[in-house]
Amino acid sequence: MLYIIGLGLADEKDISVKGLEIVRRAERVYLEAYTAVLLVEKSQLESYYGRSVIVADREMVESQSDDILAEADTKDVAFLVVGDPFSATTHTDLALRCQQHNPPIPTRTLPNASILTAVGATGLSLYNFGQTVSMVFFTDSWKPDSFYDRVAENSTLGLHTLVLLDIKVKEPNLEALARGKIVYEAPRFMTVAQCASQMIEVEETRKQGVCGNDQLAIGVARLGSDDEKILAGTLEELSQADFGRPLHSLVLCGSTMHEMEWEYARTFAIDQEKFDGIWKKNYGTKK
Amino acid sequence: MLYIIGLGLADEKDISVKGLEIVRRAERVYLEAYTAVLLVEKSQLESYYGRSVIVADREMVESQSDDILAEADTKDVAFLVVGDPFSATTHTDLALRCQQHNPPIPTRTLPNASILTAVGATGLSLYNFGQTVSMVFFTDSWKPDSFYDRVAENSTLGLHTLVLLDIKVKEPNLEALARGKIVYEAPRFMTVAQCASQMIEVEETRKQGVCGNDQLAIGVARLGSDDEKILAGTLEELSQADFGRPLHSLVLCGSTMHEMEWEYARTFAIDQEKFDGIWKKNYGTKK
């Protein structure tokens, strides 16, 4: 059996009791480490689980899945995913490969907390979110803005948008690659400030009033940990805010943000008077 | 400290290791039992946690929250919520009361798996869901159809819609109430079949092509448990399908359901040939 086990968001103790039992008895334990990261080191997981953990990077999952699935038809293999397994496409990939394996490998998935729901900590109702978008690091020559169309669609319906921020782990250095060497860059994690700046930058080109300076948004960092940080304000304010260590995410507030959502979200405001003023003027309207 | 702790979806072992540690040492342990239910009895929780658990029904949470919060400024109180705490407004209510308490009561929330993400088990991408809607039990004289407008909005954007199904626990019997007696009805949980029928019924009146007989949908039951059941088909097929014990939910597929989603979802099809035919004809189109 291949067990795909969600680890939750913060540390080694966010795994479920059921998941921990499986990890402790499994033949091998893998950790998916390229779509998200925990806030603790692998060694801390290993020491708490009492098991050695094999880090599965993108290359291993995509090209060497036979190694991961070896003997999984007769033995238990645990594949750990930060957050919730279903929130990454890795899950669907692996599960499909198990179905197509000869003989088929049974799979079982253990769900856990995901950023998609933990973002409810902002006070915004999860029922009022539209589709989720991703924001990638802009470069001088590559500023993909397809997120803007999705945000605009949500915005038309007055819905909030969760923006998931790019992480780059184990990216090869392109200059070294051109010389035939593989050297990995240091990991990079997009900050709330970078995301807010990129949104404002795209708004300046697209000009549909979707994510300009005065749009209300809420930045979050390290959700689910002791050290979580939530700040609400305009995109301009958030583009200057320091949220500290990764992981960060951002929610752009939809215009229907109702009174109860506002009452809770304003407790996180960088400048409460400003936040209240903009909310009263532009938000809380019924669709 | 008031700890609001998500229990996950299925049984007593879906709590996180961190959550279990808090439950075992807390002064009092409450269980929110009116927006969702676990698939096991309270006694099974109590026996595994080694603690007695006080069931908090809607009345207690809404009218007697002072009892729940008593001494929480100096002692640890655990408030357990089925699924993820942020997926119900109970969380926001309680947390706001804690902030407004004199002296303020510190709170900490432990996220867990939610139906909002566990529904990824269908193979549909969580990034392609629009707003979530609720379906209540229709009566002869009351058939609220505001869900239809939300589904239509999602549908315009080609997005999937998660439909959460009504549960009635501890509802007073109205005839007895009229005679001055409080007698509670037996708990009722909406089935996928009932939901699909009600959607088709509303489509017959509203006629915008949002949720008619031939729309593809996926029903799920007891997600996250050993016993989970997933079936895909037309709403008409699902209106005849038997999913067994609660809890059930339904996803109406959006027209952008792409090839990889279809490839996975079709493995759950009641009638695969029919499912494939409708998908090829009406779905998978780019926005």
Automatic annotation (TrEMBL), chains A, B:
<dbReference type="InterPro" id="IPR035996">
    <property type="entry name" value="4pyrrol_Methylase_sf"/>
</dbReference>
<feature type="binding site">
    <location>
        <position position="223"/>
    </location>
    <ligand>
        <name>S-adenosyl-L-methionine</name>
    </ligand>
</feature>
<dbReference type="Pfam" id="PF00590">
    <property type="entry name" value="TP_methylase"/>
</dbReference>
<feature type="binding site">
    <location>
        <position position="165"/>
    </location>
    <ligand>
        <name>S-adenosyl-L-methionine</name>
    </ligand>
</feature>
<keyword id="KW-0489">Methyltransferase</keyword>
<dbReference type="GO" id="GO:0032259">
    <property type="term" value="P:methylation"/>
</dbReference>
<protein>
    <recommendedName>
        <fullName>Diphthine methyl ester synthase</fullName>
        <ecNumber>2.1.1.314</ecNumber>
    </recommendedName>
</protein>
<keyword id="KW-0949">S-adenosyl-L-methionine</keyword>
<dbReference type="InterPro" id="IPR000878">
    <property type="entry name" value="4pyrrol_Mease"/>
</dbReference>
<comment type="pathway">
    <text>Protein modification; peptidyl-diphthamide biosynthesis.</text>
</comment>
<feature type="binding site">
    <location>
        <begin position="114"/>
        <end position="115"/>
    </location>
    <ligand>
        <name>S-adenosyl-L-methionine</name>
    </ligand>
</feature>
<dbReference type="InterPro" id="IPR014776">
    <property type="entry name" value="4pyrrole_Mease_sub2"/>
</dbReference>
<comment type="similarity">
    <text>Belongs to the diphthine synthase family.</text>
</comment>
<feature type="domain" description="Tetrapyrrole methylase">
    <location>
        <begin position="1"/>
        <end position="238"/>
    </location>
</feature>
<dbReference type="InterPro" id="IPR014777">
    <property type="entry name" value="4pyrrole_Mease_sub1"/>
</dbReference>
<feature type="binding site">
    <location>
        <position position="84"/>
    </location>
    <ligand>
        <name>S-adenosyl-L-methionine</name>
    </ligand>
</feature>
<comment type="function">
    <text>S-adenosyl-L-methionine-dependent methyltransferase that catalyzes four methylations of the modified target histidine residue in translation elongation factor 2 (EF-2), to form an intermediate called diphthine methyl ester. The four successive methylation reactions represent the second step of diphthamide biosynthesis.</text>
</comment>
<feature type="binding site">
    <location>
        <position position="248"/>
    </location>
    <ligand>
        <name>S-adenosyl-L-methionine</name>
    </ligand>
</feature>
<dbReference type="GO" id="GO:0141133">
    <property type="term" value="F:diphthine methyl ester synthase activity"/>
</dbReference>
<keyword id="KW-0808">Transferase</keyword>
<dbReference type="GO" id="GO:0017183">
    <property type="term" value="P:protein histidyl modification to diphthamide"/>
</dbReference>
<feature type="binding site">
    <location>
        <position position="9"/>
    </location>
    <ligand>
        <name>S-adenosyl-L-methionine</name>
    </ligand>
</feature>
<dbReference type="InterPro" id="IPR004551">
    <property type="entry name" value="Dphthn_synthase"/>
</dbReference>
